[in-house]
Amino acid sequence: MRLRTKAVIGASLIGLALWVLSAPKTLSRNDWQDVAGNVERGEQVFNIGGCASCHMEKGAKGDARLLLGGGQAFETQFGTFYAPNISSSESGISSWNALDLANALLKGVSPEQTHYYPAFPYSSYTRLSQQDIADLKLFLDTLPQVDKANQPHDLPFPFNIRRSLGFWKLLFLSDAPIAENYEPRGQYLVEGLGHCAECHTPRNLLGGLDTARWLAGAPNPEGKGRIPNLTPGGGLAEWSVEDIAYYLETGFTPDFDTAGSTMVEVIENLSQAAPEDRLAIARYLKGLPALADAPKP
Question: Whole-prediction pTM value?
Answer without folding.
Answer: 0.91
